Amino acid sequence: MSESTFAFPLGLFILYYAWQHRWIHMMIAAFFMYFADKRIATLAVIACAFMMIFMKLAKYSKKWVKALWGMVTAAGCLYIYSICSGLFEWFCIRLGIDTSHRLDVYPQIAAQIPDNYFLGKGLGTVNEMLPQILEPGLIDWFENPHNDLLKIFVELGGIGLVIFLLSYLAVFKIAEKRITQR
Questions:
Q1: What is the pLDDT of residue 1?
Q2: Is 108 exposed, middle or buried (0-12, 13-18, 19+ CB in 10 A)?
């Protein structure tokens, strides 16, 4: 297990300590998260921090919770579209972003989508296809596609992706209920 494994839990601690106004604890968690060197965890913490601020400013209105869920859902759908259309690849190449071989893998995984848009190809098919897609030296390092939305869309289709995104609505509603109880 590497230090990057703890990046997401440390991000949750940062948010929790910020919410509780325990600034020293928050700074300690941020210090260790910085050394985990996980860009996606850092972006997730920043996004969640903006969401917390957004919800405080919105005075916990139900309209804002639904709007926030709509923005998250739209962002997820746009992300999948950008991969399927080649926009993601163009953007990464144009800005010189190191994607750690994701540009080699994502288009090949996305090419499987047209086979069954609605129901997908079945659970586990993405992990089964990775050894065929990757160069022999990368399969040990790249054991999953590092993109849950793309994986869910290929394996479970549009119906499965909609159900997955609806689960986020449930999480937002639970969070709203908990926050408004305070």
A1: 43
A2: middle
